[in-house]
Write the structure tokens for this entry.
Amino acid sequence: MGSKVCAIVGMGSGVGAAVARRFAAEGYCVAMISRDAGKLERYEHELAARGVTAQGFVVDAGSDESLVSAIEAMRHAMRRPKSWFSTLRCRASARRRCWTRKRWRPTSGSACSVR
């Protein structure tokens, strides 16, 4: 696993895929969050073929519980993301559950950013 992780919320074939490829080219591992398991699997295989560690997490980003559950799964599977990218607007209550720079814990900071 690389030393840096980029998390993408709302992984899709357009912007999300372009961001994943760009961060992968810079040596990042990629954590992908989407509600489409098949799409995540395709991107995992595509990035693995390029020698990139990538893992998908299935979630309904419109559900706070689902989003928090996916973040917890990511927390156990990968390092804490250095970068977050969202193609979605995070709901206010979900924002309070994002990571902080020093440890894994909820924060009242801006939407899914690492400070």
About this structure: The longest strand covers residues 29-34. Strands lie at 5-9, 29-34, 54-58, 83-86. Residues 91-115 have pLDDT under 50 and may be disordered.
